[in-house]
Specification:
The protein has 457 residues and is of the alpha+beta class. Among the domains are: 1-30 and 347-457, Jelly Rolls (Sandwich); 97-251, no CATH class. The chain has 10 helices and 15 strands. It has a 4-stranded antiparallel β-sheet. Strands 9-14-11-12 form a 4-stranded antiparallel β-sheet, with no helix packed on it. A hairpin with a 2-residue loop joins strand 6 and strand 7. The protein is globular and about 80 Å long. The two termini are 28 Å apart. Residues 339-349 have a biased composition (Low complexity). Residues 300-353 are annotated as: Disordered. Keywords: Signal. Residues 1-31 form the signal peptide. It comes from Paenibacillus mucilaginosus 3016.
Length: 457
């Protein structure tokens, strides 16, 4: 097992920090097949996405070197993936008033995904994102296995008008959704019938959905007589669902198979999740918006070594979709949400050409620092982290993840034979009233182990 060493040459075993999404100790990646259980034929549609997401530290493998591409993911795991890739996008962190969600009954501060869940989901995610439990409290159900329809609903609020095609006519959207053979639709002739149809258990008296029934398939309701004459009504679930399903189908990010089956209750696999996330990034990049949401740069599929593209309709092996046809980025976007940008400098993907340098960032306001350095034959990597308030580090060495507390820094680790090291900060719970937390990550490659140094108190 890889060992992290301090400046005093003290060996520290890696801490296994969080389950499933960041399981720890994957084998080094190869260009053709990143993990031994990722079949180059059966998983050809996901190879490019798995490789690039693994390289960037968004998702890693398991201790035995496997990726488990067909294993389902939880809502918490999906959230952390989004949080890591789109590190400048924090809707709830910057929300206020009725738009801000302050707590979930089932996500305590010690939950491994507490910060990503609380920073990401503002009140706009109440369709698919969260609901009300039996005690009338907001519940997220972080360990629930995410199904395809629920993911589509969540994506209906994620990036909203930049991911959803709001220019599509309501009639076109309802026609497309009505063509899905396994997602029911209802056409109601008037508002009275439409209101009555909503009383099917989709909402509790509070107006929130029932968290215990999250992921259930409720009919998408439309006002009209059929696909040639239909518009949206006032049901938020139906409208979010219709817009998401139609937009995701049109963009190729998530779509039905050739027979018209969306498979709404199928669990989202790990391979599907990284592929969908990759497509979202590439779609935003094609519109020139990716820099508004992420400081991480992903190459286009055509630029990836050994890439077969990520064009799949969600795990069926289809080559349709936008994975290989997204146009190249046209710039850094045009504005964005309050959480995007705000004049913050974007940290580089690599600290200098030689891996030596520093990144400073207000992690409380701008999100965590994440960067990759490559040893290129050097023997040791020295790193340190300074901050106003305590910030810790995840250190991912060729897919093998370790957790380092700030008190154990500075630290030097052997990197002879290592391809890449990913650093990702994790802010501890902030002091009450704090509005700033400037952190500075410093890295330096060495040919020899340095002399003993004093640790932080």
């Amino acid at each position: 097992m890889f060992k992290i060493r301090s400046l005093a040459a003290r060996t520290l075993p890696l801490v296994l920090a969080v389950p499933l999404l960041f399981p720890f100790g994957a084998a080094p990646l190869s260009a053709a097949v990143p993990f031994p259980d990722v079949n180059p034929n059966r998983h050809a549609w996901a190879l490019s996405s798995i490789e690039v997401m693994s390289e960037k530290g968004i998702v890693t493998g398991y201790p035995d070197g496997r990726f488990l591409p067909d294993q389902s993911i939880s809502k918490a795991e999906w959230t952390v993936m989004v949080y890591r890739l789109f590190d400048k996008y924090r809707p709830n962190l910057y929300a206020y008033g009725p738009d801000k969600v302050t707590a979930y009954a089932d996500v305590p501060p010690l939950h491994w995904a507490y910060r990503p869940i609380l920073d990401m989901y503002d009140a706009s995610f109440y369709i698919g994102g969260f609901g009300e439990d039996l005690h009338g409290e907001l519940a997220f159900r972080p360990e629930m296995r995410l199904n395809r329809l629920q993911l589509a609903q969540i994506l209906g609020s994620l990036f909203h008008d930049r991911l959803m095609n709001l220019q599509m006519s309501q009639n076109d959207a309802c026609s497309l959704v009505a063509s899905l053979k396994d997602v029911p639709s209802k056409f109601l002739p008037d508002t009275d019938a439409y209101a009555e149809a909503q009383a099917d258990g989709r909402y509790k008296e509070s107006g929130f959905m029932d968290s215990e029934k999250a992921g259930s398939v409720y009919p998408t309701l439309f006002l009209g007589t059929g696909t040639g004459n239909c518009v949206y009504g006032d049901d938020d679930l139906s409208n979010t669902q219709a817009t998401a399903l139609a937009s995701l189908q049109a963009s190729g990010i998530m779509s039905a198979d050739e027979a018209g089956y969306f498979r709404p209750l199928d669990a989202v696999s790990r391979a599907e999740a990284v592929t969908i996330l990759d497509r979202i990034y590439l779609y935003l990049r094609g519109l020139g918006y990716s820099a508004d949401y992420s400081s991480i740069e992903l190459e286009a599929p055509s630029e990836r070594d050994g890439s077969t593209g990520s064009g799949s309709s969600g795990g069926t092996g289809s080559t349709s979709g936008s994975g290989t046809t997204v146009p190249p980025a046209s710039g850094g976007g045009t504005g964005g949400s309050p959480s995007a940008g705000n004049g913050a400098s974007v940290p580089p993907a690599v600290i200098g050409a030689d891996g030596t340098g520093s990144i400073s960032r207000n992690v409380l306001r701008k999100g965590e620092i994440e960067t990759t350095v490559r040893p290129n034959g050097r023997a040791y990597l020295q790193f340190d982290l300074e901050s106003d308030w305590k910030v810790d580090l995840y250190v991912i060495v060729d897919g093998q993840i370790g957790f380092v507390r700030q008190e154990d820094l500075p630290m030097t680790i052997p990197v002879d034979g290592v391809t890449s090291v990913v650093f990702r900060t994790q802010q501890r719970e902030k002091p009450a009233g704090a509005v700033d937390n400037v952190a500075t990550l410093t890295t330096k490659f060495l040919d020899e182990m340095p002399a003993k140094g004093k640790k932080k108190s």
